[in-house]
Structures are given as C-alpha cells and as structure tokens.
Amino acid sequence: MNLGQQILFFFSALGAFNGFIISAYLLFFKKPKSTSSFFLGLLLVSLCLKISKSLLFYFYPALPGIYIQIGILGSSLVGPSLFYFIKSALGQDSKHKTTRKGTYLFWVFAIVIASIISPYDSKPDVWENYIGRIISIQFTVYIILSVWLLRAVFTKIFSKGGKISTTETLLLSILIGNIIVPMAFKLPIFSFFNGPCISGALFFSAVLYLNTFLFISRRKNSSLFSASHDLVRYANKKITEEHAVTLTDRLQKIILEEELYKNSDLKLNDLAKKINISGHQLSQLLNDNLGKSFAAYINEFRINEACELIVNDRGIKLEAIGYEVGFNSKSTFYTAFKKHKQTTPMHYKEQLLVVSSN
Fold first, then answer.
1. Are 219 and 261 within 8 A, CB to CB?
2. In whole angstroms, what is the distance from residue 336 CA to residue 300 CA?
3. pLDDT computed for residue 235 by the predictor
4. Degrees to nearest 5, angle at CA 72 with 69 and 73
5. Tell me, what's the pLDDT at 28?
C-alpha cells in the first residue's frame, strides 16, 4: 500500500475498531442493561462485520471467501437490528420477543447453511447475484418499517412550528446514518475515495463519530440507554394528553392480559418495567394525567374482577374473592370495595339477589 492507501485504511479501520469496542460495551459491560442498548450493540457489531469485510476485501482481495461470508452475515443482521432498536427505544418492545429471536436465528442459519452448501470461494456468483440481492431487499424492507415507526417524528419536522426532542434527533441520526452508509457502498457518486468499498467504510467512521458526539453532548437530556427508557418525552416534563392516552392504553392492555393486578406484591416499578418507562414516569402518568394513585389505579382492576366473580356467584366466599383478585387482607378488600362502589361487598351481593329475584 502507498501512503494514501495507508491513511485511508487507518481511518476506515479505526471506525470499525471503535465500533466493535462500543458494541462490546453495550452488549456485555453496560450497567444497567436495557433493550435499546442491547439492540444498538447488535446493530453496531453487525455494521462493523459488514464494514470490515469490505475493508479487507478492498486492500486484500486474495483473502479466503469465509471473510466475505462473515461480512454478509453481518449485513443480514443490520436491518433487523436497526428496526428492533428503534422499536425498543420507542417503548414498543414489551411483546414479540419470540419473533425477534426467530428473526435472528433464521438469518444466521440461512447464511451458515448457504456457506456450507455454496462456499463463496467456489460459487461467488451465488453470493453476489442472489444472496446479496435478497439481503438488500430485506434491508430495504426494514428501512421502510423503521421510517414508519418514526412517522410521528417526520410529521413534526414537516409541520409548521413542529419541534423534535433530543432523543428523536438521535434516532433520526442513526436511521439516516444507516441509509447513507449502504448508499456509499452502492452508488457511483460516492466512489471518489478510490472506490465504493472504501467510501462506505469512511462514511461509517464519520457517522459513528458524529452519533457518538451527539450521544455524549446530550447525554444529560437523553434516556436512550437507561433501563427504563421512554424516548417520546423527558421525564421532568408533563406528559401530553395524546401520549398519556397511548401509555394508558398500553398499561391497561398489559395489566388485563397478564392479570398483573392479581399479584398482591405488585410494585409501581415492576409495572413500569412492563411498559418500558421509569417508575417516576408511571407515577407522573397516574397522578398528573389520570388523577389516581398507584394503589387506587390497581384496585380498580381488582374491584372490577371481584364484581364479576360476585355476579357469576360460583360459590366463592367474599373473603376468598378478595384474595383471588389480589388483595392481601380482608380489611383492605372491604375498604377498597366500599371506596370504589360506595357499598360493601355483602350489600353489593344482596342488591344483585334482589334485582335477580324481581
């Protein structure tokens, strides 16, 4: 390599090396762990595998094909990692964990099987003309899905007087970076650095350092890497009514589906983790937006369930019903029931008997 090539190799390799370091921190060493940081780590390591493959192939074209196969494996995981990162960062990752695992396993096994059946060294045309195209299509689909997840952010940008938050800016920056880097590999306009392979690697380094700078410079205002993240707003600001409706629907859905109210030891922080927000944010939602304490909110679900059990009259004693729906004592059950229904469980049952007899 001449001096110019050595300089290009240094800056390109430096970005990939630092990417591996950051991804290792996010995946294995960051405390406390969060879903968004995990998927960002996967995104970085996938990109670094892809970049390293192109970098090595550019400077050392005689390398064995296994390096190309590893790089293509990384490419196949970039799209899913970007999509699941944005999804988790927006607090939409409480479900579909099996689908996520299945997605990663599918692509890993697909590339491994393809490597065994048609090694790159013997059938490069299969990898370049077929497998490469499939992965490009897959990546495009995930880019579209990621843009759809951020549609509200784009609406703010193009609306008059719209203003996006710091965390939304960071998400957009990562999304745009993941669009620019593949373009640098594919489009001739980006080949001014001795070819698209090296241009893509250099653009990756630039995007990595830009986003690292954004994260560091705005760290105090961002909850992106916190264990309880909610990127739609800041924890110290009042939740908008529109967002409160979304959070409340999500909260109510998971409480009913998992019957969380039946857990007599349910804590506010435990419930907050279920919908990927902090305990402070959940307390703010309940108190400021719904005008209820945590205990009162959960007791509503318990009392509604208790009323259904009383109506169905399956021969369960009233005291047992209280324990069944999540109360840890008879007295708390009776107190909460009277507060919510303005009558006692016994009187409520008697009223039902009177109505049914008439």
1. no
2. 9
3. 41
4. 85
5. 87
